[in-house]
Fold:
Amino acid sequence: TSLALQPVIAPELMQGHVRLKCTYNRPSSKLPLHFMVLWSRLSPSGKREQIHRETTLDSFSYIEMDGTNLRLGDTVFCTVTAFTRDTPEQQSLPEESKGFYAGIKFLPESLQIAEDGKEHVLTVLSTVPIACPGQDESCKITLQLSTENLDSQLPGPPDIVLSACQVDLLQSPCSESSYAGATVTVTAVTDFAQDGNRISLIRAEPVGRGDLLWRAYTPKDVKVTVRDLPTGNCYSFTDPHIITFDGRRYDNYKIGTFLMCQSTSRVFEVHVRQWDCGSHRSATACNCGVAAR
Structure:
């Protein structure tokens, strides 16, 4: 029958190496119980593979993340079965842990934002401890960040900008599910173009690490959908006729420098300078200069 072993995986840092520990309950039994622990991984390609099997009297089992059999980016499981030494053929029902993702996580995993100038916080977490392979190296992982269009057929740069080109994940005391973290803000570019909703990617790549575990690892991209918003327009033309954002029309024939428009929510304004361009029969002003901030 089921023994409610309830296996759970958690990472540990041991002498500069990252190990995963599977712990499970030890049921009360008159006879000493043996445990068969099966480790398996779900690779990024979606393939489930068995990587280690052991029989132990302990209520825990370890496996090392060596970058070869067990890599960053894998989702790891441990399956535990109990039996007695005298009757090894009579085994309890196998119980599997929840999948433990080992690597870099972005929260949220995807974003849906609009061209409204708002900043959106993207949190970067490491689910495994940051090891210090050498004394000269600081205990951190540096991630180089970049953006690109998902559709390579669309011209122009990505529709998003980041507040930083790289982030450092520093070794820190672990929380419930994180061993290092940083934040970066994502903003949609207001491009004044009606180009529809577009998808951009945020890519992260570890740099400056010599150990195999991090050198061959590329975290999963973050998908950002940018919602196109209609763009307002205002005009000042000929002598000058003015049309406001909401369609109001009026004329300004005066000479001088004027504040044409100003945002109440951000640092943005446009000034126009008007000079005399009329004849001796009619006084008329024309736009001769513009300054924008």
Observations:
- DSSP finds one helix and 23 strands in the chain.
- The helical segments are 212-215.
- The chain has three domains: 8-102, 104-227, 235-292.
- The mean pLDDT is 88.
